[in-house]
Amino acid sequence: MAAEGGGKEMNEIKTQFTTREGLYKLLSHSEYSRPNRVPFNSQGSNPVRVSFVNVNDQSGNGDRLCFNVGRELYFYIYKGVRKAADLSKPIDKRIYKGTQPTCHDFNHLTATAESVSLLVGFSAGQVQLIDPIKKETSKLFNEERLIDKSRVTCVKWVPGSESLFLVAHSSGNMYLYNVEHTCGTTAPHYQLLKQGESFAVHTCKSKSTRNPLLKWTVGEGALNEFAFSPDGKFLACVSQDGFLRVFNFDSVELHGTMKSYFGGLLCVCWSPDGKYIVTGGEDDLVTVWSFVDCRVIARGHGHKSWVSVVAFDPYTTSVEESDPMEFSGSDEDFQDLHFGRDRANSTQSRLSKRNSTDSRPVSVTYRFGSVGQDTQLCLWDLTEDILFPHQPLSRARTHTNVMNATSPPAGSSGTNPGSNGNSITTPGNSVPPPLPRSNSLPHSAVSNAGSKSSVMDGAIASGVSKFATLSLHDRKERHHEKDHKRNHSMGHISSKSSDKLNLVTKTKTDPAKTLGTPLCPRMEDVPLLEPLICKKIAHERLTVLIFLEDCIVTACQEGFICTWARPGKV
């Protein structure tokens, strides 16, 4: 996706880009920064972050913006695409000594034109609750750093709560606080509440209720970011150990895990319907993980350095919804995407109901974006061919192409020409005998699917006795044992978290062992997305990407917050 022409043009910063919706344009008059507009010398300082809140004031200009630059924190009226930014009049400005703001979050429930609750996390571990409209500091948490001395990496209000908030630290710990409670004058004593593979949750043991209410220890190394699911029930965490871990927040149970290709995971976000999670990290990739199937369904390669932020664009994402609990009748062809798992209340099932009656599936596209240390913005479309690799099966149950995004490179040897590229190529072109995916299925139940050298996925859709085929493209020659282990790992099937825990138990110690398992599939085993656009938009590394209704907001480490008007919104 390089720019045309020589090296000079390559380093030019883009001020507009075009997608299928039209032209996105940088609004230079809507740039927010420190009042002097001088680029911030960012060496050794914490990432610039931006938080928005709408205070619903009567003027129709209710957006408020908070951002940190070095030791400073600013709070402005955000005029977006409508009016030029007036940097001479921040509503609030704070300069901190001895510690730097690292992250912040507004409480959207309680925000009014007269008062907002803003949490700010700091590099020395404290968390401050301030009201930048009333200009008062109401509370300081972890003030004596008795709870955690390490940098705050992420702070968020618990969805739907006016008083609970969650704080993650570079120690790998997360703490649940209540704004009404004190932090006590002594270090907290803890009692184990729940333990699982690579995580433990403790309650605070004390005579009177105090903070923190809970302490989560997750993975190894820093906990870099967490995100609540849209319904607030699940919590996705990404850590320096390279793992995504998704928890049921209330029952404190591990729902699923995923491992980066290599290096730490730095950022995470949920699709607007909660069906997919996207992560970014030190492997320069964006990874799309299915919440329902607990597996990687695609990776995206466009960045040339670490990916610092991923975010879905809810305004360009289109999913046609139907009744969430509807289940398609068994007399129609049904594409089961769950590898034998009994889950019917997913978008896939609802969409597959539509797919079963029409030859054309309904249109579904998720748009998400990413920014990185390479100063580039990438936009990605997650389309049907990736989400639903099985096209509706005909009565003859012919093979469908699963990995249509990863066709083998020209000149790759070893593929049987008669197999339409679906065979698993092995050195002697011999194909391992088809193995059933579920323990209950005998070999004889696996029918030949019209292509001699294909491996059938012998999974019977629960509740609907129809076959789901799984064919795999392979780009590289590989050995039997590896193929066998990868394609027939039982990790796909298990819906019990205990099995998933066991999977992590076996692989936690050696990262090399996770490669080629469902935790971390090989590159050639999942579709590789290409970005719709990949543009250099800043001089310094990018640290912010937020999708608003009429614009996209980005920010870089120099402390400039940029507004990109959506097509037709200038």
TrEMBL record:
* Localization of this protein: Cytoplasm; Nucleus
The family database entries (PROSITE patterns) matched by this protein are listed as: WD_REPEATS_2 (PS50082), WD_REPEATS_REGION (PS50294)
InterPro entries xrefs: WD40/YVTN_repeat-like_dom_sf, WD40_repeat_dom_sf, WD40_rpt, WD_repeat_creC_regulators
Q: Give the Polar residues compositional bias ranges.
A: 437-453
Q: Where are the WD repeats?
A: 258-290
- Region entry Disordered, spans: 402-453, 475-495
The UniProt entry's GO CC annotations, sorted and at most eight, read: cytoplasm; nucleus
Q: Where in the sequence does UniProt note compositional bias of the Basic residues kind?
A: 476-489
| Family matches, as Gene3D superfamilies | YVTN repeat-like/Quinoprotein amine dehydrogenase
Give residue spans, biased composition: Low complexity. 406-426
- Calcium recorded as keyword: no
Q: What keywords are assigned to this protein?
A: Acetylation, Cytoplasm, Nucleus, Phosphoprotein, Repeat, WD repeat
PANTHER family, sorted: WD REPEAT PROTEIN, WD REPEAT-CONTAINING PROTEIN 20
Assembly behavior: Interacts with USP12; promotes translocation of USP12/WDR20 to the plasma membrane. Component of the USP12/WDR20/WDR48 deubiquitinating complex. Interacts with USP46; contributes to the cytoplasmic localization of the USP46/WDR20 complex. Component of the USP12/DMWD/WDR48 deubiquitinating complex.
What protein is this chain from?
WD repeat-containing protein 20
Report the source organism: Vidua chalybeata
Q: Which gene encodes it?
A: Wdr20
